[in-house]
Prior knowledge:
This protein is an alpha/beta fold. It has helices at about 15-30, 45-50, 70-95, 105-115, 130-135, 165, 170-180, 200-215, 230-235, 250-260, 270-275, 290-300, 315-325, 330-345, 350-360; strands at about 5-10, 35-40, 55-60, 95-100, 120-125, 140-145, 155, 190-195, 220-225, 245, 260-265, 280-285, 305-310. It is built from 15 helices and 13 strands. Helix 8 (about 200-215) crosses helix 13.
Amino acid sequence: MTVHVVVAGGGSAGHVEPMMNTADALRRRDSTVEVSALGTAEGLEARLVPLRGYPLAVVPKVPLPRRPGLDLLRVPGRLRAAVQAAGAHLDAVDASVVVGFGGYVSVPAYLAARKRRTPIVVHEANARAGLANRLGARFAAAVATAVDGTGLPGAQVVGIPLRQAISQLDRAAGRAAARAAFGLSDGPVLLVTGGSQGARRINDAVVQAAPALAAAGVQVLHVTGPKQAAAVRAALGAAPGTHHVLDYVDGMDQAYAAADLVLCRAGAMTCAELGAVGLPAVFVPLPIGNGEQALNARPLVEAGAGLLVDDAALDAAYLTGTVLPLLRDAPRLARLAQAARSLGHRDADDALAAIVLGAAR
Length: 361
């Protein structure tokens, strides 16, 4: 009997990437396994899932209003329609198991699967579980998490499924080629990234500290985000050739291989990738939401794999007084890198795929 796995999640890369990486791992383990995805028409999954070669069934988005009002009254009807759409796809493919990664799509997927007694596997990427996965975990056959302490019952820590270009990266072996590709030479390299859209606070602080970094011989690989690149270039003016500004990077594995230290936000995917490749970081958690980014970074920071600074405290003075001395201390960077690698999960995709197939069979 053919196993058909339905993966559900979307809205952000933090949901879509682990979902697709798990799908890839399932196909590697057993070429006869069929995989399809549930997602919304508005989220990143609408573009990324077909690009990765998987069919996508669209489920209506059911956002939960933050305040009472007419929108809140419409939620039950919208949820009913979403559950029906999810259930129609489960029936059409004769789903063997549903794997939820959180987000808008997971709730209707979980409810539709429960109604059909289809096994459910939940994967939670963040240190603090979201509402959808807290619901799904109550009747799941298996629960997998990125870290300990999510509060989900019966959870097994596996890490976050990553692309093999990241999980199998040998930074030392790829260092010279990666630096050549970016036009970097020998000497300390600081990678700066605020995620796919960039982070204004991080960009501004690095621009202000640029003269001091250049004077100290630090090369900066500055991934600004596409909407902020022009402003950063204008602010830098005639910056030294050691400051390399990029709108975005296609394939962060090369950037990780080139760098000695990264200045970044603390999304769950970022933390998982840095642990897997063994790259120390200075984390600047996003100062909005429920504080989950600080929680994501905490295990790495407590293990001595990086530093954490509040968004409001990040400025040129912090970079020159704290980050610059770290970049010039190669033995300390090596210790931080080893600590990061000791926490990394390089086989999370295969581990989760095994759990999923076990639940299906």
